[in-house]
Specification:
CATH superfamily of the largest domain in chain A: P-loop containing nucleotide triphosphate hydrolases
Number of helices of chain A: 10
Number of domains of chain A: 2
CATH superfamily of the largest domain in chain B: tricorn interacting facor f3 domain
Structural class of chain B: alpha+beta
Largest sheet of chain B: 8 strands, mixed
Oligomer: heterodimer
Strand content of chain B: 15-25%
Structural class of chain A: alpha/beta
Number of strands of chain B: 28
CATH topology of the largest domain in chain B: Immunoglobulin-like
CATH class of the largest domain in chain B: Mainly Beta
Largest interface: A-B, 57 and 49 residues
Shape of chain A: globular
Number of strands of chain A: 14
CATH architecture of the largest domain in chain B: Sandwich
Radius of gyration of chain B: 35 Å
Number of helices of chain B: 36
Order of helices and strands of chain A: EEEHEEHEHHHEHEHEEHEHEEEH
Helix content of chain B: 40-55%
CATH class of the largest domain in chain A: Alpha Beta
CATH architecture of the largest domain in chain A: 3-Layer(aba) Sandwich
CATH topology of the largest domain in chain A: Rossmann fold
Number of domains of chain B: 4
Chain lengths: 294, 1215
C-alpha cells in the first residue's frame, strides 16, 4: 500500500496558506515529516487523517480516495494529534476499552487482550485504574499512543509524538513505532531531527506549507557532504558573520557560539570542514537554500 | 493598584462586543415592553393603573433584574475564571498585585459594567414613554392619560431594587466563579437563586408565611409584592415604593449576605495556581510488574465494522454519555435543587384557605410538573454540553478519526440524554410516591405516573433536546447556542403574544391536559398524539440536518461543512430525512384539516374582532321587547364517547309585554358551534326576516304577531357534534365521563350583551366607547330581568336525557322515570314548581351516597351525592354540611322549596361549584379531594363550599335579584353569610377568625388590582373580591354588631316580601341590594345605623393599632390593663384615594389570658365607643393578661391586622 498525495493546497479563512501544492508519495515504513512549528505539518497530517478538507489536490491510500471515502480511511487509521485532552474523570483502561469498541473491536475477549497489551506496551498498566485527570504529560502522551495503535492500523499518523516525553520514554516510544512500522505506513511529524534520523527510511522537510526536500535521510546527508563548515567565534563577531555568510545553525558550546555555514568551498579563515548531520540538512533547507520571503 | 485593576477590567469590557449586545438586548426588550402592545413586563399596569406609574416602573425594574441574571452571571462569573481559562493565572499571580486589589478590582470593575448595562432599562423606559406616542406603531396606552414625566420615578426603583439586586447577584456569581473556577457552578448558582424565589412563592400559599416569603426571595420581588399588596390603584399611581418594612429588611438581609459572601470569597480564594484538591487522591495500589514492555506483543484483532458493530458503538457511546452526565457534579446539583423545591412545594400543594388536598396522583402529577423548569435547564445545558463534550476536553480529533459513522455520534448523545431523562423520570415517580406516603396516602397509581411522565414529559424533553442539538450544531459555539435557545424562547413567546397561537406554530404544542380522575386524559389524547407526532417528525428533520452539518474534524467553516455534508447524504440518511419530511407534511395537513377545516379556528384577535363586529352590527337589538320563555321541555341525547349531543323539544314563549310582537330574535350558541337543525314557531309558518350567519342570529317574523299575554310554541333541534380535534384544548364541558353543561348551549332570545368585549383597554383598542359593567339600580330594564338573563322569569321544566348505559344523567327536577332503550339509558326529570331559566345537564359514571334530612315540621328532603369512585373522602362532611345548612336556612330564612338536593361531581377542568334548582354540580378539583388534616387548624373547605351552594337555593333561586349594580350582594354575599353562620355553629372561633383573615386578605388584594373602579358593596358589579370576600367580612361583622338574630329577621322579612320576584310578582320587579339594605336598617339600632352607610354604601377602611399594653396586678383575681392604641377610619373612592373620617365608632377591646389548656382565650371583650385617634383605656381582668388590643378579632377591615394586639407587659411599679 502506498499513500500518494498530489498537489495539495489549503488556505485558511484567515488568509494563511498552510499547504502549497504539496505532493508526496509515502511507502510502508516510517516516514518522517520534518519542519519547524507552523510549517504546515499538522495541517497536512489532519488532512490525511480525514479531519480537514484541502482546497484542491488529491490523496490516495492504495485504492481509497482519502478525501471522499473517509470511512474507509478511518478503518485503517491510527491517529495521535499534536495536542489532545482526555476525559479527566475516567480511568485509562475504561477509556481505552471504550475507544476500542469505537474502533470496531467488538469481541470482548479480544478487546480486553489488546487493551491490556497496549497498556503494558506503553507502560501504563500499573496506572490503568487511575483517572486520566491525574496523569502526567508523559503518561497522557503514552495513552495517546496506545489509542492510536488500537485495532492494528495500516496507516498511523503521529503528530509530534515525542514532545513532552523524557529521553527514556522517547526511546521506548520510538522503538515501539519501529516495531510496528514494518507493514504499516507510519507518518511521524516532528521538529526534532534525531527522531527522524534514528527511525525513518524516508522523510520530507516542509516549511511554510511547501516541501523543501524529500528523500531518504541518507541521500539528504549525501547532498551536504563536504559543504558544512564550522566556526567558533566570540559573541561579538556573530553579527558580522551573519551578514557575510549563509549560516544554517547557531549554537552555544560551552558558552561560545558555534556556527555552521553551508558553502561549496571553504568560506574563509577559521572555518573547519565538518561531517554534516541530518540537523544540518534540516537547517540548510529551512534557512539555507530556501528562498527568503520578500 | 485596585484602581489599575478596575480600570483594566473596564477597558476589557469596553472592547468586548458582548457588553454592547447585552445593553442592546435589555434596551430593546425594555423599550418594546413600554411601547408595544405585545411585549409586556409584569403585566400589572392597565385599567386604572397607569403604565408610567411609579409602581409599574418599580415592578418592571424588578422583573428586569430577573432577566438580568443571565447577563450578570456572564459578566460577574468570569473576571477571575477568565485568568484560569486563558491560563494567564500564573503570569498574573506572580506580579506584585495584592490579593485584595486583584479580587476587588476585578469585582468592582465588572460590577460597574453590570450597572451600566442595566441602566439600559431605565433609559429605555424613559425614552419609551417619552416617544411612545410618536412611534409608527401604537402603544397600548396610546389613548390614555399618562402621568407627567418624573425623573425620580425611574431612578428610585433603579437604586433601591435594581442596583441592590445586581449587587447581590454579582456577589454570588463572582464568588461562585472565583471559588469554583467552573462556569457551570455559576449557572447552578443562578438556579439556586431562582429556586429560592420559587420557594418564597410556594410558602405564600399560607398567608401566615408572608414575612418568611418576603425574606426568602433574594430578588426582593416577593417582599416588594407583599409590601405593596394592599396598595390601591390610586396609591400605585402616585406613590413611590419606599425602602421600608419587609422590603428594607429583605434588602438588608441579602445585601448583608452578599457582603459576607464577598468576604468569604476574599478569604477562600487562594492566590496561587495550583489548588489543593478537595479530597486526597487515592493511594495507587502498586502492582508487581511481571512483564517487560518490550516483550509484550500487541495481538492482532478482528475489526468488525458493520451495522451490528455500529449498534454496539452506539450503545457504548450512549452509556458513556449517560455516565459522564449523571456523574457530573453540577448535574447532581441541579437535580438536587429541583427535588428540594418539590419537597418544599409538597407541603403546600392544592391549598385553599390554608387547607391542603389529598395527594391523589393527579395532584402529585401537578406537583411534579414543577420540575419541568429544571428539566428545561438540564435539556438546554446538557445538550450543549454533550455536543461540545469532545471539543471541550480537546479529544475531538481522536474521536473524529475513529471509524464511527457520522450519525452514531449524535444519536448516541441523544440516547445518552434520553437515558438520563428516563432515570430522572423514575426518580420523580419514586419522589411522587414518597410524597404520597409521607402524607399517609398509599394508593399508588404507577401506571398513571408512567402514562403521564413517559408520554408528555418525555416528549417535551426529546423535542427540546433535538432542537437544542440542532441549534448547537448550527451555531457552532456553545454560548451562542445557549443564547440562541434563549432568543428562541423569547421569539416564541412574542409571536404567541402577537396572536400567532396556532399549535402548528407553537413549538412542542399539544398539551396532554390536566389529568382528571373522572375523565382521565379524555379527548386530549388524540390531539396530543397527533401534535406530538407532528413535532416529532419536525425535530427529526432538524436532527437529520444536524447530522449533515455536525462538525467532524478540525474545521468548522460553513463552506467546509456544506461540502462535507454532501458526502454524508448516505442512502439511509436520505431515506430517513425524506420519510420524516413526508410524515411531517402529512401530519401537518392532517392537523390543519382537524383544527381549521373540521373545526373553526380563530386567533385571539379574530375572536375579539368577531365580538366587535357582533356589537356593531346587532347592538341595536339590545333590550328589544321580546317574548319570554315560560316552559322548556327537551329531550337531550348525549353521546359521551363521541362527545356529541342533540337536543330536541320545545320552549313555550309568552308575550309579557303590552303590545303585540311580530318578530322573534333568536341567538344560537355560535361560539360553541352548536348547529340548529330546525327551529319552528307554532305551525311552522314563521318567516326568516333576516339572518346573520356569522353571528348565529336570526330574526323570525311570526305568521301573526303574538298578542299580549299569548304564547307560541318554539320547536327546535340543535346538534353539538365534535369533529376531530381543535387548535385549542377543545370543549371540556361535553366529555367522555363527567359532562356538565347548561342551557346556554340552546337557542336564546335576543341580543347577547355578554358577548361584547368588556375590558376598557380592549374596547379602546377597537375604538369602542368605554362601557359600564352593569345597569344602574334605577334602570327599569335591569329591574325587570333577573341575574339569569332576560330570556325568562320562571319556567316549567322537564327534560329527558339519554346517555351511555354506564352513566347516570342528571338535570334539575325530580326523576320521573328511568329506562333502557336500544342500549342507552334514559332519565326523565320534571320540576313541579316554577324555577329560574338556568339548568344543568350532567352525566358521568357515578357512585351515589344517599341520606335524608327532616325539618322540625316534618319536611323530608332526600340528599344525594353523585361522586367518582375513589373520592369518598369528604362525603360525610358534605352530607353533614348539607343537613346543617338546610336546618339553619329553613329555620331562619324560609322553608326549603324542594324535596331533594343533589351534589354531582364534575371534572377538574373548572374549579367551582354552582347551584341549580335542587342540583349542585361541584368540581372534582375542590372539596372532594380537600384534606382536612387537623380539624382544629384546617378550615373544612368542602363543608364551607357545600353550605355556600345550598345557601344559593335561597339566595338566587328563591330570590333571583335584578340584573343591576349591586346584584351579587343579594345572591353571593348572602350565600356567603349563610355559609358563615353554618360554619360559626360548627367551627371554633379561631377557625372563623382564620377564614375571615383570608377573606380580608383576598378583598384587599382584589381591590389593589381593580382595573376599572372599586364599588361599595351595595353597588358591586361582578367583582368577586367584593361580593364574596368583602361581603363575608361585612356580613360577619354586621351579625356581630347587631346580632345574628336581627340579621336573620331582616333576611326572613326580606324573603317574605320578595320570594319569587319579577314582573309578574306583587312588587312587579326584581329586588336590588338597596331593597335588602332597607331590611337591615330596620333591624339596626340607631346607634349603629352609621355602620350600614360605612360598610355597604361606602368603602371604609380602618387602621387600628395598639401601641402600648401594660398591666398592674391589684390582687390575685384583679389585674388592671392599660391599653394605648390609635384608631383611624378612612373612606376610599373608586380609585382608592383615602379620606380620613371622623371617629364615632364602637370597637372591640379585648384582653387575652391563658386558659387551662395553656391556650390564649379572651378574658375580656367589650365594644367601646372610640371618638378620637389616640386613646387610653383601662380594663380589669381576673387573670394574668397575655395579649390585649383593639379589634382583636379583626372584625373590621384593616390593612395591618397584626398590629391590633400586643403582648401585655407588667408595668413598672412607681409606688
Amino acid at each position: 500500500m502506498q499513500l500518494v498525495i498530489e498537489n495539495l493546497n489549503k488556505t485558511y479563512s484567515n488568509g494563511v496558506q498552510a499547504l502549497k501544492n504539496i505532493s508526496l508519495t509515502i511507502d510502508q515504513g516510517m516516514f518522517g515529516l520534518l519542519g519547524p512549528n507552523g510549517a504546515g505539518k499538522s495541517s497536512l497530517m489532519r488532512t490525511i487523517a480525514t479531519l480537514q478538507e484541502p482546497d484542491s489536490g488529491s490523496i490516495q491510500l492504495g485504492t481509497i480516495n482519502v478525501l471522499t471515502q473517509k470511512d474507509e480511511v478511518r478503518k485503517a487509521l491510527g491517529y495521535l494529534p499534536q495536542e489532545f485532552g482526555v476525559y479527566p474523570k475516567v480511568d485509562a483502561e475504561t477509556l481505552l476499552s471504550h475507544l476500542a469498541v469505537l474502533k470496531g473491536i467488538t469481541d470482548k475477549k479480544e478487546r480486553n487482550e489488546t487493551v491490556k497489551a497496549l497498556l503494558q506496551k506503553t507502560n501504563l498498566y500499573e496506572a490503568r485504574k487511575k483517572n486520566l485527570g491525574g496523569y502526567s504529560g508523559g503518561m497522557k502522551q503514552r495513552f495517546g499512543i496506545a489509542q492510536a495503535l488500537l485495532a492494528n492500523p495500516k496507516l498511523i499518523i503521529v503528530d509530534e509524538p515525542t514532545a513532552g516525553l523524557d529521553p527514556a520514554e522517547r526511546n521506548r516510544f520510538l522503538n515501539l513505532l519501529s516495531e510496528i512500522g514494518e507493514n504499516t505506513i507510519v507518518i511521524l511529524s516532528t521538529h526534532i531531527v534525531d527522531d527522524v534520523k534514528e527511525l525513518c527510511s524516508d522523510m520530507a522537510i516542509i516549511n511554510k506549507g511547501q516541501v523543501l526536500y524529500k528523500g531518504s535521510p541518507t541521500q539528504a546527508l549525501a547532498q551536504i557532504r563536504g559543504r558544512v563548515w564550522e566556526i567558533r567565534v566570540p559573541k561579538a563577531e556573530v553579527e558580522v558573520l551573519r551578514a557575510q555568510f549563509n549560516i544554517i545553525s547557531e549554537k552555544l558550546v560551552g558558552g561560545t557560539p558555534v556556527l555552521h555555514v553551508l558553502a561549496d568551498t571553504e568560506p574563509g579563515e577559521g572555518f573547519v570542514a565538518v561531517d554534516g548531520d541530518l540537523e544540518d540538512v534540516y537547517f540548510s533547507h529551512i534557512f539555507g537554500t530556501a528562498p527568503v520571503e520578500a | 493598584m485596585l484602581k489599575e485593576i478596575l480600570r483594566f477590567e473596564l477597558a476589557y469590557r469596553k472592547k468586548r462586543s458582548a457588553t454592547y449586545i447585552y445593553f442592546a438586548i435589555l434596551f430593546l426588550m425594555s423599550f418594546f415592553a413600554v411601547t408595544s402592545k405585545y411585549i409586556v413586563i409584569g403585566g400589572v399596569a392597565g385599567g386604572q393603573i397607569v403604565e408610567n406609574s411609579p409602581y409599574n416602573l418599580s415592578f418592571m425594574t424588578v422583573i428586569m433584574t430577573f432577566a438580568m441574571t443571565f447577563i450578570v452571571s456572564a459578566i460577574m462569573g468570569v473576571p477571575v475564571l477568565r485568568d484560569f481559562d486563558h491560563k494567564t493565572d500564573s503570569m498574573l499571580f506572580t506580579t506584585p498585585v495584592s490579593k485584595f486589589a486583584y479580587l476587588f478590582g476585578r469585582f468592582f470593575g465588572s460590577f460597574v459594567v453590570t450597572v451600566l448595562v442595566f441602566s439600559a432599562v431605565w433609559v429605555a423606559f424613559m425614552l419609551g414613554f417619552a416617544v411612545g406616542k410618536y412611534l409608527p406603531w401604537e402603544p397600548s396606552w396610546a389613548a390614555k392619560e399618562m402621568l407627567p414625566f418624573n425623573f425620580w420615578h425611574y431612578i428610585q426603583p433603579f437604586l433601591t431594587l435594581g442596583i441592590t439586586n445586581l449587587f447581590i447577584q454579582a456577589a454570588l456569581y463572582f464568588a461562585a466563579g472565583t471559588l469554583s473556577r467552573q462556569t457551570i457552578v455559576i449557572y447552578v448558582q443562578g438556579i439556586v437563586l431562582l429556586v429560592l424565589y420559587q420557594i418564597a412563592d410556594t410558602v405564600l400559599e399560607d398567608i401566615d408565611n408572608k414575612t418568611l416569603a418576603a425574606m426568602l426571595d433574594p430578588f426582593g420581588f416577593r417582599a416588594f409584592q407583599i409590601y405593596t399588596e394592599y396598595w390601591s390603584p390610586a396609591q400605585k399611581n402616585s406613590q413611590l415604593v419606599p425602602l421600608e418594612g419587609v422590603l428594607l429588611w429583605n434588602r438588608l438581609l441579602w445585601l448583608g449576605l452578599a457582603g459576607l459572601i464577598l468576604a468569604g470569597t476574599y478569604f477562600g480564594f487562594s492566590f496561587s495556581v495550583v489548588r489543593k484538591g478537595w479530597r486526597k487522591a487515592k493511594a495507587a495500589v502498586a502492582e508487581k510488574v511481571t512483564f517487560k514492555p518490550e516483550n509484550v506483543r500487541i495481538p492482532t484483532v478482528r475489526q468488525v465494522l458493520n451495522a451490528g458493530s455500529y449498534l454496539t458503538m452506539l450503545w457504548q457511546q450512549a452509556k458513556f454519555y449517560f455516565k459522564i452526565t449523571t456523574r457530573d457534579v453540577p448535574f447532581i446539583g441541579i437535580v438536587a435543587v429541583g427535588l428540594i423545591n418539590l419537597i418544599v412545594s409538597s407541603f403546600y400543594f392544592g391549598e385553599m384557605y390554608g387547607t391542603g388536598s389529598y395527594p391523589i396522583t393527579a395532584n402529585v402529577l401537578g406537583l411534579l410538573d414543577e420540575f419541568d423548569l429544571f428539566f428545561l435547564i438540564i435539556v438546554i445545558f446538557y445538550s450543549g454540553e454533550l455536543i461540545w463534550r469532545e471539543r471541550s476536553v480537546n479529544m475531538n480529533l481522536i474521536m473524529d478519526a475513529l471509524p464511527v459513522p457520522d450519525w452514531v455520534n449524535l444519536v448516541a448523545k441523544f440516547i445518552g440524554l434520553v437515558m438520563v431523562y428516563v432515570l430522572l423520570l423514575l426518580v420523580l415517580i419514586v419522589m411522587g410516591m414518597g410524597v404520597q406516603a409521607a402524607h399517609g396516602y398509599f394508593n399508588f397509581e404507577i401506571p398513571l405516573y408512567v402514562k403521564s411522565l413517559f408520554t408528555s414529559t418525555l416528549f417535551f424533553l426529546v423535542a427540546y433536546t433535538l432542537l437544542a442539538f440542532f441549534i448547537q450544531v448550527m451555531a457552532n459555539d456553545k454560548f451562542i447556542g445557549y443564547g440562541l435557545m434563549f432568543v428562541f424562547f423569547i421569539v416564541t413567546f412574542t409571536i404567541g403574544a402577537m396572536g400567532v397561537s396556532h399549535p402548528m406554530f407553537m413549538f412542542n404544542s399539544g398539551n396532554l391536559g390536566d389529568y382528571s380522575d373522572m375523565n382521565r386524559y379524555g379527548h386530549f389524547v388524540a390531539r396530543f398524539s397527533w401534535l406530538k407526532f407532528y413535532w416529532f417528525t419536525f425535530v427529526c428533520i432538524l436532527f437529520s440536518l444536524s447530522v449533515v452539518f455536525a462538525v467532524r474534524g478540525s474545521e468548522a467553516v460553513m463552506r467546509t461543512r456544506l461540502r462535507l455534508g454532501r458526502l454524508r447524504l448516505t442512502r439511509p440518511l436520505v431515506t430517513f430525512a425524506l420519510t420524516t419530511i413526508i410524515a411531517f407534511t402529512g401530519t401537518g395537513f392532517y392537523v390543519y384539516y382537524n383544527t381549521n377545516q373540521l373545526n373553526k379556528y380563530r386567533t385571539q384577535e379574530e375572536g375579539e374582532q368577531w365580538a366587535v363586529d357582533y356589537e356593531k352590527t346587532l347592538k341595536k337589538f339590545n333590550h328589544l321587547p321580546q317574548p319570554k320563555i315560560v316552559e322548556s321541555n327537551l329531550r337531550v341525547e348525549l353521546y359521551p364517547d363521541e362527545r356529541d349531543f342533540t337536543a330536541e323539544g320545545y320552549f313555550w314563549l309568552k308575550n309579557k309585554t303590552e303590545q303585540p310582537l311580530a318578530d322573534v330574535h333568536i341567538q344560537e350558541d355560535i361560539l360553541n358551534d352548536v348547529q340548529t337543525e330546525y327551529l319552528r314557531f307554532g305551525n311552522g309558518d314563521a318567516q326568516v326576516k333576516q339572518r346573520w350567519e356569522k353571528y348565529g342570529y336570526t330574526i323570525y317574523t311570526l305568521a301573526q304577531p303574538l298578542a299580549p299575554g299569548d304564547s307560541v310554541k318554539m320547536d327546535f333541534k340543535v346538534n353539538f357534534t365534535t369533529r376531530g380535534f381543535t387548535a385549542g384544548g377543545g370543549n371540556t364541558s361535553i366529555v367522555q365521563n363527567g359532562t356538565f353543561f347548561n342551557n346556554t348551549y340552546f337557542p336564546s332570545i335576543g341580543y347577547a350583551e355578554a358577548a361584547e368585549l368588556g375590558d376598557d383597554d380592549l374596547r379602546r383598542k377597537y375604538k369602542l366607547p368605554e362601557k359600564e359593567r352593569m345597569m344602574e339600580q334605577t334602570d327599569p330594564r335591569g329591574l325587570s330581568q333577573s341575574l339569569f338573563g332576560d330570556d325568562a322569569d320562571y319556567i316549567r321544566f322537564q327534560m329527558i336525557i339519554g346517555t351511555s348505559p354506564d352513566q347516570i344523567a342528571i338535570a334539575p327536577g325530580y326523576l320521573q322515570k328511568e329506562w333502557e332503550e336500544k342500549g342507552r339509558k334514559y332519565y326523565h326529570y320534571q320540576m313541579d314548581i316554577p324555577m329560574v331559566n338556568f339548568y344543568s345537564i350532567v352525566s358521568a359514571r357515578y357512585e351515589v351516597k344517599r341520606d335524608q334530612w327532616k325539618s322540625a315540621d316534618g319536611q323530608v328532603v332526600n340528599l344525594e351525592i353523585y361522586y367518582n369512585k375513589g373520592h369518598e373522602y369528604n362525603l360525610e362532611q358534605m352530607m353533614t354540611s348539607a343537613k346543617k345548612s338546610l336546618g339553619y336556612f329553613s329555620a331562619n330564612f324560609s322553608p326549603y322549596q324542594f324535596r331533594q338536593l343533589r351534589i354531582m361531581e364534575f371534572p377538574r377542568y373548572a374549579s367551582f361549584a354552582q347551584s341549580f334548582a335542587n342540583t349542585v354540580p361541584f368540581s372534582e378539583g375542590i372539596g372532594f379531594i380537600q384534606k382536612v388534616s387537623n380539624p382544629e387548624k384546617d378550615l373544612d373547605m368542602p363543608y364551607y363550599v357545600t353550605a355556600h351552594e345550598i345557601g344559593h337555593q335561597w339566595w338566587g333561586h328563591q330570590v333571583p335579584e335584578a340584573s343591576v349594580k349591586g346584584n351579587a350582594m343579594l345572591s353571593e354575599t348572602q350565600a356567603q353569610y349563610s355559609a358563615l353562620m353554618v360554619m360559626k355553629h360548627s367551627f371554633t372561633p379561631e377557625l372563623m377568625q382564620k377564614f375571615l383573615k383570608y377573606e380580608v386578605d383576598k378583598y384587599l388584594q382584589g381591590r389593589a388590582m381593580e382595573r376599572k373602579k372599586e364599588q361599595p358593596l351595595v353597588l358591586v358589579e361582578g367583582q368577586g373580591y367584593i361580593h364574596y370576600n368583602k361581603g363575608s367580612v361585612i356580613m360577619y361583622a354586621l351579625q356581630d354588631y347587631i346580632g345574628e338574630a336581627n340579621v336573620n329577621t331582616a333576611l326572613r322579612n326580606f324573603l317574605a316580601d320578595w320570594q319569587y320576584p319579577g314582573p309578574d310578582s306583587k312588587p312587579g320587579r326584581y329586588p336590588t341590594s338597596r331593597d335588602l339594605l332597607g331590611y337591615f336598617r330596620a333591624e339596626t339600632p340607631d346607634s349603629l345605623q352609621y355602620l350600614i352607610d360605612d360598610w355597604f354604601e361606602h368603602i371604609t377602611l380602618y387602621e387600628n393599632k395598639t401601641t402600648e399594653a401594660t398591666y398592674v396586678k391589684q390582687s390575685d383575681t384583679k389585674y388592671e390593663v392599660t391599653l394605648k392604641f390609635s384608631s383611624e377610619k378612612y373612606r376610599a373612592d373608586s380609585a382608592g384615594n383615602d379620606t380620613p373620617q371622623k371617629l364615632a365608632e364602637w370597637i372591640d377591646v379585648g384582653v387575652y389570658g391563658k386558659d387551662k389548656a395553656d391556650k390564649d382565650s379572651l378574658l375580656y371583650l367589650q365594644k367601646h365607643k372610640i371618638t378620637k385617634q389616640e386613646n387610653v383605656i383601662k380594663v380589669s381582668v381576673p387573670k394574668v393578661p397575655t395579649k390585649a388590643g383593639i379589634d382583636p378579632l379583626n372584625k373590621l377591615i384593616d390593612r395591618h391586622p397584626d398590629d391590633n394586639t400586643k403582648t401585655v407587659s407588667q408595668a413598672e411599679t412607681t409606688s
